[in-house]
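Let us practice reading a record.
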Amino acid sequence: MNNAPDRSPDEAPALERDARESLRGLPAAIQPLLTWVTGKPLRHQQPLFRMTRASFLTWTLLQLAASVAASALIVRGPWYCWPGVLLSWMLTAGAARKLQVTVLHHCVHANFSGSGRLDRWIVEFFSSVLLVMSFDAYRHDHVTVHHSKKLATLEDPDLKFLLTLGFLPGVPRGALWRRLAWTLVSPRFHALFLVARLASNVTRAAPHRRLMALGLHAAVVAIVAATDAWLTWLLAWVVPLTLLYHVAALLQFICEHRWLQIAEPGQPAKVVLARLTAGRFMGEPAPPRGLTGARRAWAWGGWAARMLLVHLPFRLLVMVGDLPQHDWHHRHIHARDWPNAAYARQRDIEAGHPGWPEPYTEVWGLLQAVDAVFVLLSSLPPLGQPPGSTRLADAADVMNDAP
């Protein structure tokens, strides 16, 4: 049994090509979990409960607090518990990313509380805690520039930074993958990203914002010093909020849009916009039907292992919040149901995506999403001259306004 209506004979052949629909035969009890992990519901599936904007923020803060507390307990515990810190780090960095790229993101769109002033102060406070962009800087770069005709073009500040990192059109796909692997572990990349985050909160921030950031972190350092908890603070907060945060930001950022995709002459604006962004779902289709015995057990065992060890970690750390449905956001920027974006996107598909002539597209798997971007970039002609309009020191400003 499952928790969605059966398919009609007429629609079955098309839906069988849908990765999420291939999982329909699994027990109904795990379908809500699969929807959350993948980011895509079954056709006609209804949520067990509807998340509100306030409850989304509450659960995100609870995840952040609980994971930091878990890390603190682990690092103070016996050595054989330390491997568990990898999971708590992932949850901490993922919660911080979710707070920034979902809650603060919708605040700069004036789409969180209903009060522009409250949305502003939510951003100012939590961006001070996380050491990311202030409200004014975020709103300018993201709402004014990114959500415009400059999206995914050479004038998009997000793309300029990607080019500055060396992810250039005309570069072979394999070379782009090697560039990504090196950048993720590069001390220079992480140092520049951290310095830029600090600068955006101190040297380039408005006076009230600077005082807020300095005051909050001075208080934290004072408490850490008074309790001699330097190692705990370093491992429970600093490591996940720097190294893992930066890794998650870069992996998400690279595959956020189909950068530099060339529009055909005369294409309607909505067609161009829709083709620049795809759904990115963390999972893969069910094994082929018809397998029996050991081959069936091996195939399903491999599928379960990849869901647990590959796709779930990417969902927790990288593709957090409503990022899997980022294509829906670009079609419905001011939609209020973003805490339930997976179901809202599916409803839009089932309704025939009214007002948008272009159907939704999707890619399954984070690495597959990155690879699709690299295939596109490698197919494009090289730039006439190297980009120079974005400084590496601006990394945090660009990468943190990505959604």
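A brief commentary: The mean pLDDT is 89.
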